[in-house]
Amino acid sequence: MSLRKGGPPPSETRNPGLDPASVATVQKMLREARNGKPGKDNVFRRLMSHPVRAVPVAFLLVIIIGAALLMLPAARTDQSADVFMDALFTSVSAVCVTGLITVDTATFWTPLGQGIILGLIQVGGFGIMTLATLLALLVRKNIGLRGQLVAQSETHTLNLGDVRAVLTRVAKIMLTFEAASALVLTIRFWIAYDSNPATALWHGAFHAVSAFNNAGFSLYSSNLIGFAEDPWIITPICLAIIAGGLGFPVIIQLTRGDVHPRNWTIHLRLTIYGTLLLLLAGTLLFGAFEWNRNETLGQLSLTGKILGSFAGGVFPRTAGFNSIDYGVAAPETLMVTNILMFIGGGSAGTAGGIKITTFLVLGFAIWNEVRGRDQVTIAHRSVSSSSQRQALSVALLGIAAVVAGTMLLLMFTDYSLEKVLFESISAFGTVGLSTGITYNLPPAAEWVLMALMFTGRIGTVAVASALALSARPRLYRLPEERPIIG
What we know:
Structural class: mainly alpha
Number of strands: 4
Largest sheet: 2 strands, antiparallel
Radius of gyration: 25 Å
Strand content: under 5%
Shape: globular
Strand order of the largest sheet: 1-2
Number of helices: 17
Order of helices and strands: HHHHHHEEHHHHHHHHEEHHH
């Protein structure tokens, strides 16, 4: 009996062990393989078929390529060292725009290696902004990536055409802020620090890109401690950090002229007001705890103390630069910094953490619950229950990641809980601040930090988007019960 009309082709044989359906399936798979079309069971197709799965795969590929480039002999000064772990860790840290390092960026890597790191930072920051924005648009409109991606928010804060328009606009914003910051820094390095024009330009561009992308990589072994009292270095870097941490949708609405708070969306309100609140609180608390301590701000001038306090409120917003040695900071300062690092910056931006909107939505949910209100309202608008559940999921998953990472680091190292917790939150929040223990961690602990950096950078975006994209309305209601809470 033939499988199709006209009898089987010469290449086919009758096999009593295979039924006709099985033979047809094998034939289909072979045809697809010959035509270069993946079958339904193709692993790569499954990974890339959904944008939420495609994001981590794409970033993993960039990390692998970056590590391979950093392992080139021309990229490093020490040819005798076993560079695999250092290259991989640096690549993860750069692509995830974190800033944690196991080797000194200024001395271990050659100009070529530093250029590779700069490229990875730019790719990581640009990729996160665009991918987070595109996923946000997908969540808003629930449409596919094939063809044009057309989406618009409720109040026209985003009026984006296709993917090309999104990428072009994000690129323009990034390059504008980076160029402005690089210009100021280059002039300052050139005039005040006797750098030749080429070196000043390189240092200015590197730190501008690192700042806007909230990466925290520096070409100085002491990071920015040597510039703690220089407002022409600290201020533009802080402003670039804040701009990159606001997020693409916020910058777009502000640059389009919607500066009156009456026209702001809930997202814009939460991001702007939350950023100002956290910056003010972080600056005041950092200054209060470190003002008279000789190990940090105590020996600086009044200008240096003010700059140091401001930087202490900005840098933990996932930037990773430091103008003081956090290894000798007060425990109170480390605790405040932990909180700021975990919260992070704005959504669809270069900052990490659980994001300001997540934190404030949960705060308003608690406040409305205390007041006995059924709805969570912000600025005369109600927040959907699905948004509240997503915020709760992201926050709890973040806590779980930090707790798991901290426990593993305690197992693999002999450092105190205070230092290990700081390192875990810094990695998960893609901040890059450290009390100085990163250089001396064993390989197992380095793997833990790499997993935290990757999870903190990709995980929060992917989890939030996956939860929103997988939401389906239920056409029925189950009987309710009220468990005892508290």
